[in-house]
Amino acid sequence: MIKNKTGKFISNVYLIAMLIFMYLPIIYMCVFSFNSSRSLTRWTGFSTQWYERLFSDYTIGEAVYYTVLVALLATIFSTIIGTITAIGLSKSRYVIREIITNINDLPMMNPDIVTAIGMMLLFASLGLEKGFMTMLIAHITFCTPYVILNVMPKLRGLDPNIAEAAMDLGATPFQALIQVIVPQIAPGIMSGALIAFTMSIDDFVISYFVTGNGVKNISILVYSMSKRLNPTINALSTIMVSIVTIVLVLINVVPVINAKMKNKKISEEGNY
Question: Hey, what domains does the chain have and what are their CATH numbers?
Fold first, then answer.
């Protein structure tokens, strides 16, 4: 009994220490983004001046614009491509499905630097000028596997005869896809889209290697700002952390809300 209590105590201490180690620097950064002076070690008073400078800086505004635009477009395209691919794989033979699924896992398991160099060489061999389009293509490429990974489990739990039943009742294949299959796998699609958006917003390594012509996202800008003492970087990083946190909360909350609404609907139908 004493050994169990001691082991539990040590485990709790270890967990708390790890949480402090991971999150204390982030909290420190967020707090000092409101510091009134340029000091990154001494608190001199509360101020929002670094946020004001952040939003008045054209370079930062341009980086935010490219970041949000690329993230939104990459999310839309990767969600569409990933969903269609997942649906196609669910109808494929087992061997083909397993092969493609394993291939789909490779970009997620590869180090970012390997993917970045590979894409850079690909764009160079195709003669594509690095800039907005190459960054967008790269983001769509590495976001799509995450969408497929989130949609596939929903398709596995779906009745394989549901689309055929809809077509037997007069629906066209497209109507069966949009009105029957997609609503059933909507939570998986939403989770995949949110993860794709988060990955695009957060990416630095791949973006750094495939962009050019003055096109920068927030991550690249933060990297360039980190080479000199600039408290604005704290404000910018705090906003990035906040965005990613909100998206991650949504990823975890949305499926729970959908499940509760579905259970409530089933319960109401049962009462009738």
Answer: 57-271 (1.10.3720.10)
